[in-house]
Amino acid sequence: MLTDLLTGSWRDAWSGRRILAAALLFVRGVDRREVFRLVRQYAGASQTQLAITCGMTQGKISEIMRDIQRVIALEVFERIADGLSMPAPARAILGLALRPHQASSAATGRRR
Predict the structure, then answer these.
(1) I need a labelling partner for 50 at 20 to 30 A (CA). Which of 9, 41, 87, 100 fits?
(2) Which residue has better confidence, 66 or 106?
(3) Using an 8 Å Cβ cutoff, are 50 and 2 in contact?
């Protein structure tokens, strides 16, 4: 996962409104590039690192960031969300189910 490759500053970035707004634009198809741009900004991630963590090729990440390739498959949204360690609010924006550890944390009111 990306958080294993990069610093904790990326995990902190998910608490900001800007990244959650970017996730909303991503799912609506308005701007699929901003999430990846913000990851690169906050975490210093290369396209290759993004590709590895999201189970894609660097070329595919590049195409998404240049708005040449569109993400429409739920399975791809899942890989991106998992690879970028999206927290529950961002996953909800994307229409994705919580991961088991997120669901147990949400039930007890704790954050992981």
Answers:
(1) 100
(2) 66
(3) yes
Residue type at position 36:
F
| CB contact burial 16-47 (16+ within 10 A = b; e otherwise) | eeebbebbbbbbeeeebebbbebbbebbebeb
What structural domains does the chain harbor?
Answer: 2-108 (1.10.260.40)
Gap between the Cα atoms of 78 and 81, Å rounded: 5
Q: What is the pLDDT of residues 69-89, one digit of tens each?
A: 888 888 988 888 888 888 888
